[in-house]
Design goal:
two-stranded antiparallel sheet, 4 strands, mainly alpha, binds fe (ii) ion, Hypothetical protein af1432
Amino acid sequence: MINHTMLDDGTSVFYYVVLFVIYSFLGWVIEVIYRSITQRKFVNAGFLYGPFIPLYGIGAAFTIILQYFFHTWHLVPRFIIFGLTLTAIEYSIGFLFEKIFKLTLWDYSEYKFNLQGKVCLLFSTLWTILAFIFITFIHPLVSSNVFTLNVAYIKIAAVIFLIYYSIDSILSLIFLTEFQKKIAYLYTEYFNLSNLEIERILNSFQRLRNAFPDLNRYINENINNKIKNSISAFLKSIQDKIILEMNGRKPFEHEYYEIIQDIDGHEEFMKLKDYFHHNSSIYEHVQKVAYLSYRICKFLKLDYRSAARGAILHDFFLYDWRNHDVPDLSREKFHGIEHPAIALANAKKHFSLNEIEEDIIKKHMWPLTLFVPKYKESFIVSFADKYLSSKEFIGEFKKRRSHRHAQKAHRQHNKSSTRSGKNETGQHRLR
Ligand SMILES: [Fe+2]
Ligand SMILES: [Fe+2]
């Protein structure tokens, strides 16, 4: 049991500081084991640089205090009190992080019986069980050892730990503020940053993102939402212009063919003529998408060269997507998601691409694929592809439907003429 007499002693506070540090360290060990197993690599958990997670120290402190006041109570009400207190602590810390740093460090929203994703029944129960294991086995053992140590050593250790803890906390808070600023910067400047810059920003916070995997989802969701909103506003504003643009083609054709001439005519690229796509061949489809993208980007004063080149290579895959197996895509894989990477690999193999062209090919299936386009040109191509694909599909559907109707009519015609032939024969027989 806890040495309660130490609570009244002026030096006891130093012992408790040391205990706090030890329990923060044990908490870190638990988290590291849990995170490293779930992520299958070593993960330095928690937001401090050092091997401590203060939240566990705080949880331990509250558990000790609760035990001090309620140790005479029956197990069940004690379990409930412990559970409610620990849940309240976890909720408050999560809430404060969201309020102060606008960051979601953990998220239970996919668990049953959760409260705003900050706490959930399963983890609250686990914390409470952990608290009981702690107060019954760990704390008596650790505290009885710590309390036998010489007070002078404890004082020195406590002061050193406190200084270290303060420095680590301040540095970590600065780091967290920096992180928050960079993320805000990322959200607003996403379109103006190169892929490399975005990667550099995200990589500079790799440790924090490993330590709190939910943070990644939070960042991605935010980026996705921001982009979706600005794109739909952007597309709405130009949709009419796009349709208008589609009608006046001829004057630019010469320039368009000049831009894509090294691709159009290339032996490997011409193989696209052999593969059916939507209603014709992949070759015809990519030409249409490239031309429309080129026109729109020229109209909007964007990089129409990259748009045309990226678009003409966007579906550079050499297999029939309705019945694929070899050579590039095995049957069990889903063409819709896989083909941008295949097209990009083929394109890189035969042509040199700039960053925009790569982005166009890799991300033209967004939002089916998770990679969000980075350039306006990529969004235009993605839009042109969807617009033309649906037109092609509808065209093909109508063609097949009228073909079916024609066949049906033909069959009916045949039937009725056979019937009338029969009648004639019948009549002959009658006669
Ligand atoms: Fe595609
Ligand atoms: Fe396409």
